[in-house]
Write a structure and sequence with these properties.
By secondary structure, the protein is an alpha+beta fold. It has one domain. Helix content is about 10%, strand content about 30%. The strands form two sheets. A three-stranded antiparallel beta sheet has the order 4-3-5, covered by helices on one side. The two termini are about 25 Å apart. This is Acetone carboxylase.
Length: about 80
């Protein structure tokens, strides 16, 4: 999910956490796929702030959907 940055530059979107109701900047990209619906090459992405990385990842992992978690390009990240 993304919204335009405060500068109003649509080419420079601010990446926002995908957790419901969270407006924090995204630090992590959770890459996933539903094997019943998507081929092996397909990946979808949820964005997560530091606070929601674990809960979003646990939700996807419990269903066998989570494939990888990577830092969002250009963002400071936490080593967890």
């Amino acid at each position: 999910m993304s919204i335009p940055s405060p500068s109003g530059d649509a080419a420079d979107p601010e990446l926002i956490c995908s957790a419901r109701g969270c407006r924090a900047p995204a630090r992590w990209a959770l890459r996933w796929r539903n094997p019943r619906l998507h081929d092996a090459e397909r990946r979808k992405t949820w964005l997560a702030c530091a606070e929601h990385r674990a809960t979003l990842g646990d939700f996807l992992d419990a269903r066998g959907f989570l494939r990888e978690v990577v830092p969002v390009s250009g963002s400071p990240t936490l080593d967890v």
